[in-house]
Amino acid sequence: MTAIAERRSAARIDKVFRVLISTEDLGDQWYVARNISTSGMFVEMSDPLPLRTKVIIRFQFPGDEAAICAIARIQNHYYLQYAADCGDLRALSGVGLRFLRFIPEIGAPVPAERLN
Predict the structure, then answer these.
(1) DSSP 16
(2) Which residue in 42, 82, 84, 91 has its CB near the most CB atoms, within 10 A?
């Protein structure tokens, strides 16, 4: 069997969490994100946004007012099929996002160490 070379340059964390994605056309919508790295992540979307669409992603931590924000671009569309525990075939669609840059949350207080 031939080994397939890993194309990813950054390690992935396979963690499921909610993100708020904002676009000019659709406004704010909550999605489920997973498989995050320093350069991007996978977001489940039943109706994926067009390729190259720029979005703002907010990572909100439970019980915390602060959020991490990033500007990202829709890089790829994915449609995954897998077998569930009961043997049924299931499917999942989504997008691969590439982080372009991280930005401060709008309205968030500026940390004291960044004021000087």
Answers:
(1) -
(2) 42
| Residue whose token pair is 């372009």 | 100
| pLDDT single digits (tens) 18-41 | 899 999 888 899 999 988 998 999
Place of tokens 């994100």: 33
pLDDT, tens digit, 9 for 90 and up, residues 38-62: 899 999 998 999 999 999 998 876 6
- The residue among 30, 26, 92, 31 whose CA lies nearest residue 53 is 26
Neighbours of 74 (CB within 10 A): 21
Query: Which domains can be identified in the chain, with CATH numbers?
Result: 17-104 (2.40.10.220)
